[in-house]
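Meet today's protein:

…
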Amino acid sequence: MTFLRCGAGLVAVMFAGAGTAWSQTPAAAGRIKISSGQASIVREGKEVPAKAGELVYQADVLKTGADGRLGVTLRDESQISLGPTSEVRVDRFVYAPAEGNLGMALRIARGIVAYVSGRIAKLAPDAVRLETPAAIVGVRGTRLVIQAGSQAPAAATQTKTRKS
């Protein structure tokens, strides 16, 4: 009987450990809806082609080449569109409205990026940040286009926003 209890306890510990590992798998921040031309995702230091349907995670870097375009819909229904020669890092994405846990930070390194706000901006406007080399943009439920980075000399990097 003791052997049976010990065996059952060992199995319970094994499943508890496996459950912890499974629960640590990060939830996807969103999904690529449109990809054309040269487009990729850099995840954990490895660059892979960006394809429609591919999941996007926090810490992923989205990149497009000279002929690339990328459209992403995040879990909160925010939409991000990258034009040619663009790069955006998903620095932070948390969408757990039931727990009151909301936040998004996108780092726009270069290129032209269009953004349409989703539920995070509606529920917690201060929880959304769009960062460029020259500015940090707070979002209050809007649509905007940002041009950042390499089109201008490093000392004269400009950020343009257009609200519609």
DSSP finds two helices and 13 strands in the chain. Confidence is low (pLDDT under 50) at residues 6-23, 152-164.
